[in-house]
Design brief:
By secondary structure, this protein is an alpha+beta fold. The chain is built from three helices and five strands, in the order E-E-E-E-E-H-H-H. The protein has a domain of 74 residues: Beta Barrel (OB fold (Dihydrolipoamide Acetyltransferase, E2P)). It is elongated. The termini are far apart.
Length: 122
């Protein structure tokens, strides 16, 4: 009798390793006493032989024999391709609207103005 392998669905969060993708799988459960829904996120290392997975992709994982110390899953199918926007540091600098103050300007703004209390109490 052949056993059925476990299948999980998740999102790729890292693909920087060769032939390996890190996939997060979310599961929801109800707490037995408090009846609150608890979200559990588990990260699995999955075998991606052709390096096809990209960041943000939704994939289907299948259980397999141990392939390395931590790899016990393999990517069977890429369900949807994820769209990840890469932002360079130069783009972030141009988006700042606040003027950059010099150290002398900061000190001048933080010092309170001096008043002559002796003359006004008179």
């Amino acid at each position: 009798m052949q056993r059925k392998r476990k299948i999980k669905f998740g999102r790729v969060v890292s693909n920087s390793m060769d032939k390996t993708a890190v996939v997060t799988v979310e599961t929801f459960r109800h707490h037995p006493v408090y009846r609150k829904t608890i979200r559990r996120v588990v990260r699995y290392k999955a075998h991606d032989g052709k390096n096809e997975c990209g960041l943000g992709d939704t994939v289907r994982l299948e259980e397999t024999r141990p392939l390395s110390k931590e790899k016990r899953w393999r990517v069977v199918e890429i369900i949807t391709k994820g769209e990840v926007v890469e932002v360079t540091p130069v783009e972030l600098e141009t988006q700042t609207e606040e003027p950059v103050l010099e150290p002398e300007e900061i000190v001048a703004e933080s010092e309170p103005e001096e008043t002559n209390e002796e003359e006004s109490t008179g």
